[in-house]
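note to self: dont lose this again. the chain is below, predicted strucutre after it. 127 aa total, dont forget to put it in the shared folder this time
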Amino acid sequence: MKDRFAALKDFLTKIPAIEGNIGTGNTKEGLWWLKFRIDISKPVAWQVVQEISFVVNNLSVSEKLPTVFFPVSPPPYLNGGPQEFLSWVIECNHSEFSPDDLQEWLAGRLPNPVDDLNQWVGAWVDE
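---
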């Protein structure tokens, strides 16, 4: 059986500062989510957060995607700081919007080529 997240996970792993495994899940209603880490010690990390946030959360006032991008963390007082324990989640709340659909939206709007660090770095980032 084909992994419905394969193309989206492959795409996300090419983005500078995203690293490690990408967790995924589905509900019985067909909704889905994925969880990943962004290395916040990299200068481009917050640019990555901003770009993904724009596409996933606020691309258009009139045509919002059925997705939400947000940070998650276990209790910091029990575990540690954001470098180790801050993760990022994308949730989809519409069963007809697939991970492949999101991959296409991201590919069409994020810096291109997505794995070229120079495309991500703006004048405000010190490398």
